[in-house]
């Protein structure tokens, strides 16, 4: 949206440029620098006239603007015009004062320095208009905030108020400024107008009591009468008709068609309320204005002594009322003078003349000081009171050079002021510029110009100048008159080339100079001044008596204007001339400190008529404004110059070599820079410390490039800054994350610490418990014990024996031995029970046999253990193994058990294969079909075996039983089984005897044999030399 608008604007400008470029061909040149015959005054004049005839009132000389007063509305100050000129380099558009204003404003904004727009030209040339237009331009185009709107409005509205009180119609100008005005517009760093300050210079007070034919008093009087409300006028005791007032009607043109007092009154009424004037202020202010009018109408009389008298008319009453002083006191002060002797004050009546003089002095003083008060009041309303740094653009609109038919002290001052301003212009442009070229070593052909310093000196030089002579004459004792002043002038400066009097002029000039007159050859022309009133106006005497009265005034404005302190100060205040000289010098100091832009105003004719171009008049102005010299300097010179450092500093970004820093000397940097951006050799010159650029065009191109570059740089800065911001955010987040992490780790660590602490506590307790484990249960070991128990019990489940034979049992800790034992028992019992339950009858019988075996052999005979898990067989012989004959023999007995055996003969110990068959009643040793030996159990004395691993079994029989053959010595493989079966069948206790070493057996009555049991490397049974049966068995590994 914005760019589109900008595009339209640019297009508009382009069209405008094209049209004006073609127009320019027709209507002269818009910059005098482009004039071919630039040394010719006529060509200059022609160009100006040509353009003026086409209503082109502005023309440049370089950056200086020449303006010709059109005396008509041209429609070139519209809002769209302002927008057109805003932010556009001024060569791009036709000349305009907006371009000058915009340029100054933009320079101020970019370089943050103070600027000054100096508008000069003679009275009626359009200075005040120009300054108003510039102010409006700033008010319009500057950025604005709501809060500063008020400041801006006040700045704008202060103007009509000041004009009402300080401007008047003169022969030259219907709105002639009768005071000098210097106004600072203050801008803040963003270029927003934030306030202002006004300095006023020498208001032409004499106008209050006297003005020439065809002129008027200050506008305010007429505006008040014309526009003031009925009540207000009644309150002030005024009539509407200005012609009724002597002070207003001397020029015979109180009513002027070109001036609309009624409208102006409305404007200032509005302005007053905008710039902080209270009702009370206005009452007092208009009271003063009205009392001045009443003062003018006082009727004087003369008494018989020739002294002035004033009848108590209603004027006196009104003045007394409005100024708040007693009428009688006022009357006395107007008609008497107080003369102070050493001892007393004496009242001395005044002559009519002196009394009128006193009255006029009072009117002037009251008006003059009220004007100063007004300026101060406006200042207090528009000044920006903040202590921030501000830059200013100064606008100087001061009374222009004036030549009337009769020129008095005022014209003398005004023209002196113009001389000074011309001096400034010369100093800052022509002279300074040429001096600069010389200093910078730029080739230069000096251009001659008239330096008016000589005239300034003539007026202001100390002790020698006209002002000093006037002052001397004023304070000189003895009768000093205007004529004696003239004589003094002749005596002291008579020889000066720019001064002439009637006496000093030759016969030719004599006619044109009056007796009381002197001529000054101003830079702008010759002016003849009449010395009449010089002394009086320079003294500006207000009788002390009147001052005293005014000091007692109840009117608060007057009270501020006339301070009692002033009465007490007996020192003579400086004269008007000297004051003016001093204030001018301080003004020049203000002006010199700022970057100036110039607007030179030209008046095209004396009749205030549009479209009338008086060649003679304009040519004269061209001459004295020094425009030709200016053009010549411009043509030969350079539009722009800048110290290398500053130039480089501003534009260094345009060349990669100089950006961002240039290390070498600035001059070389600048050279490199301008080569890079393509300056042609005729475009510039390099001085000692500065670069000089000949045409604005080159500079504007550079400025434009810089503008473009700035955007790039800004983008870069923005990017960097954004990066910075992002990084900052990132770092912040990272820090936050780290913090979180740290805290979280802290939390974890604390948890871990707690856990370890807990662990330590537990371990410690554990250790303590362990140490105290043997003590009776106490807090120290309680938990440990519980733990051990629990642990043991829990562990135990993995070690529980699964069968009765499993003897494994988890070794209990000391404290649990008892419990463990109980448990073990429980467990065993349970196992046994389970085991028992699971046992069949058959197996039970078998087990019972084993029990018997255990009872017999347990721990007594080697090899027992090995056989434990070998189940006993029912019999080792089947039915078939036993001979049927044998079976027949013992058929009445049931065979319980049978086993093959080896029988050793009792005598020879010969080994023979036999069967041992056990029945319920007896044991039979069977040889195939024969029963070799039957041993009834009742006769069985015992059964012997050895304690070794042999299978020898001896059945002992009682010798008493004859039938018996003696003890049977047998050997069988399953000895434990066979013996057990036998023992169980015998049913006698302790029948089995396990012997060690040897055993005796019965062979026959009275005869016994011996069996020796031994261990040896191999099993052997043999009859030894002693006739004993020796049984060697292998020692079994246990
Ligand atoms: N740019 C202008 N356009 C139209 N009229 C102008 C212009 N400048 C001056 N005038 C007319 O000329 C008169 C005198 O101008 P002014 O600025 O008061 O002169 P100065 O201040 O130089 O004595 C104004 O009252 C106005 O009528
Ligand atoms: Mg003016």
Automatic annotation (TrEMBL):
Residues 861-1035 form the TH1 domain. SMART domains: IQ (SM00015), MYSc (SM00242). Keywords: Actin-binding, ATP-binding, Motor protein, Myosin, Nucleotide-binding. Gene3D superfamilies: 1.10.10.820, 1.20.5.190, 1.20.58.530, 6.20.240.20, Kinesin motor domain, Myosin VI head, motor domain, U50 subdomain. One of its GO terms (cellular component) is cytoplasm. It comes from the Eukaryota. One of its GO terms (biological process) is actin filament organization. This is Myosin IH.
